Each structure stands twice: as C-alpha cells, then as structure tokens.
Amino acid sequence: MRIIVASTLGFLLIGSAAMVPNQSKNAPQVKPIKTLMVVDATNKVVGYVLSINFQTESYRLATIPTVSLQYRDQVVVVGVTPDHFIGQDPTLLFDGPECTGTPYLRDLGGYNYDHLTPQSFVMNDGTLVVADPAVSSAPVAITVESYLDNINAPNPSVCEPGGGYEAEAIRTSPPVNLNQLFQGPFRLQAQ
What residues contact residue 48 under an 8 Å CB cut-off, 6+ apart? Predict the structure, then answer.
C-alpha cells in the first residue's frame, strides 16, 4: 500500500511541476516600473515623465512623454519627442515678418491664469518661450506679422505670415535654448 501511495504522490508532484510555466533565467520578465524618465544622448536626465500624451499623426498614434522643468521660479511642462521639445501652446506670435522680432504667446482670455503651469512654446531650434509671470496678467495689443504654428505636433513648427492683424498677446520671459542644455536624440529610461 505504501508503494502505491508513494507512486501516486510522486506522479502528482511530477505532473504539477509540468504545469508550472517555464521560469528559466532567459525567459523575458515583465515587471512594473517605479520611475520613468527622459534622458538625452549623453544619459543626462531631461526630466521625469509626468504623463504620455497620444496624438494621431498620419493614421498612427504618436506618443509624447511630458516632463516638468524648472525655469526661473516657474515649473514648465514640455513634451519630448525623440528629436525635439514641444511646448503647451500651439502658436507663438511675432511682431516682425518671417517669425522675427519679439515673441508673444496668444492671450487665451481668462484661461491664461487658471493653470498651475505657464503657457509655453518651444521653437524648432529648441528655444523655450514662457509667459512672463510679472506681466502675464496684462495682455498687450500687437500687430501679428507672422506666427509659428505647431498644431501638427509632433512635427516641427511652421512659420506662417500673419497678415498684420491685431491681437491680444502675452509678453514672454527671456528665452532659454533647451538644445544647449540637452543633446538629442532623447529616449525613455526606466529607473
């Protein structure tokens, strides 16, 4: 009787071991990530990922991680693609032709002041333009001679003629060039 019980027990143990999934050391492992960050080509941390925005580009989904940066006394949120940065505002206005002169952000009425982060725009060369907190509550009237439009983000911005229309605009702080601080290409890295 003991032989039958031992044989049955051994058979059950071998059978149950065969039902366990392959746990070899070479099998791919899926595990949660505590922190996700964007790093540049030199492995310098650009920022920790706040969210990933999804945008449609030519019938495919483009994913754009957003990171926060400290700019002067403000927290600025920007998107990062493999080769450039994207600001929160889709349009940067200029009082000069061909996107020259003083840059201004669009006045969004009361919406400018309801956000925790300031309006921002990143030009194709990496220049970050941010609403000036000292004067952003006072829009100014300007004549728009040209504007940069990144409505097709993540594609680069396009300079368009403004036609000289009048608009309410927000003054900006002195710009900083992100491409001088970080070197593309950019990639995600788990920590």
Answer: 35, 36, 37, 38, 67, 68
SS3 category, 30: coil
More confident site: 58 or 45: 45
114-150 pLDDT per residue, tens? 567 888 899 989 999 998 877 656 788 999 999 998 7
Neighbours of 156 (CB within 10 A): 15
Backbone angles phi, psi at 120, to 5 degrees: -150, 155
Q: What is the pTM (predicted TM-score) of this model?
A: 0.74
Sheet containing 120-122: give its strands across: 120-122, 127-130, 176-177
Q: What is the pLDDT of residue 87?
A: 87
Query: In this predicted structure, what is the pLDDT of residue 141?
Result: 92
**DSSP category for residue 112:** G
Tell me which H or E stretch contains 6.
helix 2-19
Q: Distance between CA atoms of 106 and 104, rounded to whole angstroms?
A: 7
Q: What is the DSSP letter of 108?
A: -
SS3 166: strand
Three-point CA angle 91, 83, 118, nearest 5°: 35
89: closest CA among 71, 115, 63, 69?
Answer: 115
pLDDT above 90 as % of the chain: 39
CB 57 within 8 A of CB 46: no
